[in-house]
Amino acid sequence: MLKKINALLLTLLLSVTASSALGAPSEITVTDCDPAGLSAKFKVEILSYLPGQENPHMAKGDPLSWNNGENVDNLSNPAALAKLPDKEIFTELLSADSAPVEVRVYLRITLPLETAFTWPDDYYPEDYPHKWKEQIALTYYTNELRGTMTFTPRALAGIASQDQLRELRNVEQLVVVGADGKVQTLKAQAWYGNVGEVQYYNISNGEYGNVWDTQSTFPMTVYGVSYKYLEHDITVTQPENGAIAPIEESGIVKVKHGEDAEFTVTANSGYQIACLLIDGERVDVDERYLCTYKFPKVTGAHTIGAVFEEDANAPEIGADKGVSGTVADVIETSDDTEVAAFEKGGFTNGGTVHIVSASGLVTTKTEGTFTADTDGFVQAVKLKVEYEEGAESRGLTLAVKPLDAAKPFSADKKYYALLLNKKTNYYDLFPTALNAIGNLEVAVKPVGDYFSEGTIFVYSGTATDSGTPVTPDTPANPDSGPKSGGGCAAGVGALALLAALPLLRRRTGK
Q: CB-based contacts of 308: which residues, under 8 Å, 6+ apart?
């Protein structure tokens, strides 16, 4: 029994140890990047203000000041050059990352408490006993100090090159370590300019809203650091007749060691994806128009490219300015699960629909009914549509081609497209037109009502327009699935489940 207990305890200990290390960097190294020993030549100031004040410019009294610099006026209290930090300090700070990381230290200064600080005579009301002022000031600085922290080298002697100062732009974060071991981090920003003929740098803890707030004890040490993670190159070859994203101008995408890297491959209008080229090898994909590829837990360099081929039957999209559309998938058979669920909802069997005319500058909507022909399903086109802010009222056109050139669309039939209105949660019906080359064209507008993701179902059938305007549009109920005026409840549930399926999953017919 005792052996079993010991084994259990050992298992629990190993589990705790493993979980505590989960997510922490596999390796941390600390590098001294202090150019020409500038840490020993800095003016350091903390502009303090009362708790509750949001604007440090409203601070009372003089700032706390330390001087490691040369030729800096009005500073007397020296700071000390600190030793390089222990890497253990950064273990918890970087616990969200697992990639090996180099901590680059550009500044390292220890700040003692400014006990000689004096408040202006008018800081407190006249009836405050004078003997309290020094004690209150000391308590304020040790227990309630807030403010902005800046580091500024000015008129420095012995700097061989201004490039050494420019390196300070690499400071990303100020790490403050109190005498009690408490660690704070502040986002840093750096800038440089000229005072007369003297170029200077100033590094602070970012925007004024990002203030320093400590309960730590003096002396405290401040490190100006940046982080360099182990990264790997993924070389992206931008293909003809399509696109791969993300892609950098250099063609190289940097990925942290151990992280996933996902790319989206999109075919241009009139083309489809023939294959991907991954590390020089052909990789076939099920998706014809848009797909994703993931490199999991990257530990080395990779390459990605793609080959596209013409697709005479691919739907074509035209869009207004500020709107872009991509064909994500085409469903070619009514046996597809999404189409079957759509039909079971009653949307093609006499159910009430909203009939939309999106031609010209005016979009109108009236009540109506729609009944699909027997075997009236044509195809369903999955779209990914994006639009710029302000372009929600604009539209796009979709041209649907016959899937079999030997079976063109009939001029004796009427064809309609049905699309879910994401604002009302009802399906709207758009009449299509047969163009001169035998393709069905439908205009969808405004895109802000229907996208960024949607499936357009195209059927032949009969639509009856009652001529009664749709007033008002009923807001969508987040607790219900898509519906029509006469839809079947069973279909509503099925469509709600389908909404959770991944957009890019390819559905093949039987």
A: 239, 240, 241, 242, 267, 268, 271, 272, 273, 274
**Per residue of the chain (510 residues), what is the pLDDT tens digit?**
444 444 444 443 333 333 334 456 779 999 999 876 777 777 787 766 544 444 444 444 456 677 776 555 555 667 888 899 999 999 988 987 778 999 999 989 888 765 434 445 555 555 544 444 444 444 444 444 556 778 887 655 555 456 667 777 888 998 989 888 888 888 888 877 665 555 667 788 766 555 555 555 678 899 999 999 999 999 999 899 999 999 888 999 999 999 999 999 999 888 999 999 999 999 999 889 999 999 999 999 999 999 999 998 899 999 999 999 999 999 999 999 989 888 877 665 566 788 998 776 778 889 888 889 988 999 999 999 999 999 999 999 999 999 888 899 999 999 999 998 888 888 899 999 999 999 999 999 999 999 877 899 999 999 998 888 886 665 555 555 565 543 332 222 222 223 323 333 333 332
Q: Is the dihedral of CA 269, 271, 272, 273 positive or negative?
A: negative
Give me the residue label for tokens 């549009």: 473
Cα gap 190→149, rounded to integer Å: 12
Nearest CA among 308, 283, 296 for reference residue 234: 296
Residues 6+ apart with CB under 8 A from 10: none
Q: Is the peptide bond before 125 cis (omega within 30 degrees of 0)?
A: no
* Bond prior to 35 in cis (omega within 30° of 0): no
Residue with tokens 């400014």: 114
Cβ atoms of residues 34 and 106 within 8 Å: yes
Confidence (pTM)? 0.64
Alpha helices in 314-406 (DSSP H): 337-344
For residues 474-507, one letter each, b for 16 or more C-beta atoms within 10 angstroms of the residue's C-beta and e for the rest, the string is eebeeeebbbbeebbeebbebbeeeeeeeebebb
- β partners of residue 177: 183, 221
How far apart CA 344 and CA 457 sit, in angstroms, is: 14
3-class SS letters over 421-474: CCCCCEEEEEECEECCCCCEEEEECCHHHCCCEEEEEEEEEEEEEEEEECCCCC
Phi, psi of 478 (to 5 degrees): -65, -15
Using the structure block, give the residue that is written with the tokens 């090996």. 100
Interhelix angle 337-344/489-498, nearest 10 degrees: 150
DSSP secondary-structure letter at 483? B
- Which token pair is 494? 């099925």
Cα distances (Å, whole numbers) of residue 57 to 46, 105, 150, 223, 287: 12, 30, 14, 25, 58
